[in-house]
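Thread amino acids onto this structure.
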């Protein structure tokens, strides 16, 4: 069931609510530059087991409105709160992939984890996607600058090059093309704006320390986007967290090792 939620005057967020009568609820927050459809192979499986799955398109992506501004983590976290309030969600698992994971971390800190009973981070871009003087574990800053410049100069080519980095296991050309098309659905300005947050956002280091719900960290050892040391940093900073490492697995772990990913998420929500 798809519908829109007002998050501020003139801005609506697209929401997909699958199996609203499900026994347990998981709210999925997608990564850059896709949309909620990236979790298609979780939506196919989890509702069969009685789960309610809710996916949102972050502002600027998918079928959501595409305003010029509002792409900082504070506003993106506030958008999640608007969806939580509109659907009156409580006692749910909040799950985020890549930048979506970083947004979830900000939600937990900024909104004190309102309504969230468990947190799941999938190859999350936290505490920092890029290397910093005090955090040498991310990507070189220039790699992100190249993505931003590529967005402005030749966005389709940038998306193709990014798509070449996200899998470890081989995927069909058709699947690769589909993910490419999801990226093209986003506005160019929102695509660039989110990438710029990777350069300046440093508050996630402190945000991680505020999380006080059981947290599952799923991360591929072969991730070329959010490098594996990010997962180690998350595990060190989040109390009551558990790290599950996926061998032979890249950034899109929910495709690379779909069955194992689904099993780990199900087990965590059932505990």
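Threaded sequence (271 positions):
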């Amino acid at each position: 069931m798809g519908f829109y939620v007002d998050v501020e005057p003139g801005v609506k967020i697209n929401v997909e609510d699958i199996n609203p009568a499900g026994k347990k609820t998981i709210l999925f927050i997608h990564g850059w530059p896709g949309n909620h459809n990236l979790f298609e192979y979780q939506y196919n499986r989890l509702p069969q087991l009685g789960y309610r799955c809710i996916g949102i398109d972050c502002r600027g992506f998918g079928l959501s409105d595409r305003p010029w501004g509002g792409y900082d983590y504070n506003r993106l976290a506030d958008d999640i709160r608007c969806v939580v309030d509109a659907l009156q969600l409580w006692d749910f698992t909040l799950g985020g992939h890549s930048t979506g994971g970083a947004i979830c971390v900000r939600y937990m800190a900024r909104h004190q984890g309102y309504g969230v009973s468990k947190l799941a981070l999938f190859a999350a871009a936290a505490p920092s996607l890029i290397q910093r003087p005090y955090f040498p574990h991310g990507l070189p800053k220039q790699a992100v600058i190249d993505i931003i410049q590529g967005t402005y100069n030749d966005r389709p080519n940038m998306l193709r090059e990014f798509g070449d980095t996200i899998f470890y296991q081989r995927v069909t050309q058709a699947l690769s093309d589909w993910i490419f098309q999801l990226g093209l659905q986003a506005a160019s300005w929102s695509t660039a704006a989110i990438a710029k947050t990777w350069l300046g956002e440093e508050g996630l280091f402190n945000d991680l320390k505020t999380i006080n719900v059981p947290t599952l960290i799923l991360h591929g050892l072969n991730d070329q986007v959010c490098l594996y040391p990010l997962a180690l940093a998350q595990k060190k900073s989040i109390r009551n967290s558990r790290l599950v490492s996926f061998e032979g697995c890249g950034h899109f772990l929910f495709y690379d090792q779909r069955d194992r990913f689904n099993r780990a998420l199900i087990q965590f929500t059932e505990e």
